Amino acid sequence: MRNYSLQNKERNVLQQYGQTRSPAVRELYCAQPRKSGGEVIRPAQSGATRVGICIVFSLVVGLMLGIAGASAQSGSLYGAGAPEDAAYVRVFNHRSDGTVSRLWVGATEFRNLTTGVSSAYRPVTPEIHMVYLNDLFEELIAREGVYYTVILQDEGLLIHEDPTHRRADLAQILVYNLDIAEPLALRSADGTTTVVGELRSGESGAVAVNPVAVELTVFLGNGQSVELGDIGLERGQSFAVFVMDDNGRPAARVDRAEILVE
Asked: Do the beta carbons of residue 253 and residue 1 sit within 8 Å?
């Protein structure tokens, strides 16, 4: 788990892919983000949210790990022993009033949710649940085998449906623009290759990539950027990048997804 703060560096983000300098991203190809098959659940006060899915295949000679042509794998890659007949929910606390002592998703209780930190995914029964935080609540229609992220905000609760990661040969990156007004994109550090983008406030997107060592940066539309560096991608793992406003400055946190089965 890492936190990143603003880096003010001027970069040319309009270069063509053919001008990419880093060998690790020279042949990184990315489709445009598209809406996921599932619906993002929106609180009435939050405005529209989209989930974009971008599938990226990194074909880097000499940097590929494992066997090229590894087959797709069904079932969960987030942790051993995760029940296949459940839905999964995690929570990210983006409230300004500090740690949330408890939150309920149906009968499942999340405790001591620290500001700026995501919980592990936890299994819930596939059915209609109410997500409760004090006097705030939202309905979650949980479906079997589907993953959800609940964002706790000062003004309400926002629920994203996350693309399920099923590729044992690839790493997944999910990016959430929590509240940055400027559109943002995840790119290679030199700005020449877009990995996920562009995401407006409240939107999220996901990619599946080859787990090569590559420096990544979040670029904002106003020229600001947040350097992530090499986030340590691993095969079969899912990484979340939460981008947020931190007292008027953009910041980001990277968490690796886990499942907590009790």
From this structure: yes
For every residue of 21-77, DSSP letters joined together read --TTTTTEEEPPPEE-SSPPB--TTT----EEEEEEEE--TTT--S-TTPPP--S--
Residue 55 · residue 31 · CB < 8 Å? yes
Q: Is 238 among the domain residues?
A: yes
Neighbours of 201 (CB within 10 A): 17
For residue 188, the enclosing domain spans 2-65+82-88+166-256
Domain tally, the chain: 1
Is residue 116 one of the residues assigned to a domain? no
Tens-digit pLDDT profile for residues 161-187: 999 998 999 999 999 999 999 999 999
Task: Give the number of other Cβ atoms within 10 Å of residue 4's Cβ.
Answer: 19
In a domain, 154, yes or no: no
Contact 120, 59 (CB under 8 A): no
What's the whole-model pTM score?
0.75
pLDDT band at 32 (very low <50, low <70, confident <90, very high): very low
